[in-house]
Design goal:
145 residues, 32% strand
Length: 145
């Protein structure tokens, strides 16, 4: 019989634990404070197959109307590497005033056992959501390779 670890598992996005990283955003108990935090939580939500969260954080202007996940595709998310966030390069005087941002990342995954790599530069916008709170939304992305 193997001994179970009592240490919390790391967050799928690479953070210390789901409870202190992406979990509060996905549960709706906290608002992602940056485009990078939202992108990381969306990566985690893909791994959890949490389509409602993904759609809720997708900007209405580009949100798909068709399902974004398929039961036939067996996807295993393997890792996330954040290449850059525009906010880090520009060093805005006040991040609270930031309304657009980009995050470049590489996500590794397997579809039906076959390794894949997604390299994307994602565009995000920060604007009022239902209830009036400012929130980040994923808009779209481009693929540099």
């Amino acid at each position: 019989m193997s001994k179970k670890s009592t240490a919390p598992a790391g967050c799928p996005c690479g953070g210390p634990s789901l409870a202190t990283c992406c979990g509060p955003y996905i549960a709706g108990t906290a608002i992602a404070p940056s485009a990078e935090a939202l992108m990381r939580s969306r990566y985690t939500a893909y791994g959890q197959r949490n389509e409602p969260y993904l759609l809720a954080t997708w900007h209405p202007s580009t949100r798909p109307t068709e399902p974004i996940m398929s039961d036939e595709e067996k996807v295993q998310w393997l890792g996330l590497e954040v290449k850059s966030a525009l906010r880090l390069r520009q060093r805005k005087a006040d991040d609270a005033d930031l309304t657009t941002d980009t995050v470049e990342f590489v996500a590794r995954f397997k579809i039906n056992g076959r390794a894949q790599r997604l390299h994307e530069i994602s565009n995000f916008v920060r604007e009022p959501a239902e209830g009036g709170d400012l929130r980040w939304f994923y808009v779209d992305g481009s693929f540099p390779e």
